[in-house]
């Protein structure tokens, strides 16, 4: 969708690690799985389709196995998927290490404990810790399960992609899956007037600030 200079690429690469923390996902491996998902959408070769798995948990377990195989270069990848993605081996290895994942988990736990002791946080909030630990996989599960199972279709894409309007704002536009599969290079996942993609104005702002350069305007 857009390109950026090497310094900005490194900045956002590091920001990705800091924001994802314990659930860090490799941009390279994620990009390859995402391209596979578009190429094989809702077929048996789709790395995360709700229509070829028993439930959301088995779907994400299969996704995890494919992701690890791609990450560790133990799976043959079609040449069209191995292109145009950023790589930073230091952050890749750091983010995927158990030391990093456990360390972030302890930071989250410490935050909750301090909030409980000093900010009068209710004890029930501790039940949110598993969600905090697994932010990335949970987000992926919601997008890939709901986005291909619930909602409506604006376009016939020869798959089962849907627009889950009610939950889309919480997923920052990513639940307009039917629109996205129709126009995968569009920076705006919304299509109709009532479909608001909250990430779109952020991308436009970054473009105006010359931080990114939009490759294709739709």
DSSP strand content: under 5%
Q: Termini separation (Å)?
A: 10 Å
Shape: globular
Rounded Rg? 18 Å
Q: What is the tally of helical segments?
A: 10
Strand order of the largest sheet: 1-2
**Sheet of most strands:** 2 strands, antiparallel
Overall mean pLDDT score? 94
Query: How many β-strand runs?
Result: 2
**SSE-based structural type:** mainly alpha
Order of helices and strands: EHHHHHHHHHHE
Residue stretches low in confidence (pLDDT < 50, at least 5 long) are none
Helix percentage: 40-55%
Protein name: Fatty acid desaturase
Main location: membrane
Subcellular location: Membrane
Organism: Dyadobacter endophyticus
Layout of helices and strands, plus pairs?
Elements: E1 2-3, H1 6-20, H2 27-39, H3 56-71, H4 89-96, H5 98-118, H6 129-133, H7 135-146, H8 165-168, H9 177-182, H10 200-208, E2 213-214
Antiparallel strand pairs: 1-2
Describe what you observe in this structure.
The chain is 50% helix and 2% strand. The model has no long low-confidence stretch (mean pLDDT 94). It is mainly α and 218 residues long. It is globular and about 55 Å long. Helix 2 crosses helix 3. The chain has ten helices and two strands, in the order βααααααααααβ.
Quick rundown:
The protein is built from ten helices and two strands. It has helices at 6-20, 27-39, 56-71, 89-96, 98-118, 129-133, 135-146, 165-168, 177-182, 200-208, and strands spanning 2-3, 213-214.
